[in-house]
Fold this protein.
Amino acid sequence: MTTIVLSAGGTGGHLFPAQALAAELTRRGRKIIVMTDARGTQYPTYFPGAAIEIVPAAAFSDRSKLRLMTAPFEIMAGVVVAFRKLLRAKPAAVVEVVAKLGARLRDGFAVVEPGPVRVSRKPQS
């Protein structure tokens, strides 16, 4: 069975699009692993049959000075943990689900456009 990793931040804006993609990929017989941060544990029933892997994460906004100084180390720890989990899982593809919605005016109406989804595949040998 082909394994696909969905990489998504731990908020609904990332996880809801990942949920829709996971449901379709599962329907097509793929094994799904969702990599997210600790906030993703708020949505445990959204990915039936999928493995949920928690990866350390940090942001630079809304933090004390001490947390700002530790953020780079938290981010580096997240990269190392994610890399190890990817090596263990050996996925056929990693899909980054980005939660960007852009609004712009077109003919006097706001048009909301979803952000990009990036897919990385293993090189063919």
Notes: The two ends are 19 Å apart (CA to CA). The chain has one domain: 3-121. Residues 101-113 have pLDDT under 50 and may be disordered. The chain is about 35% helix and 30% strand.
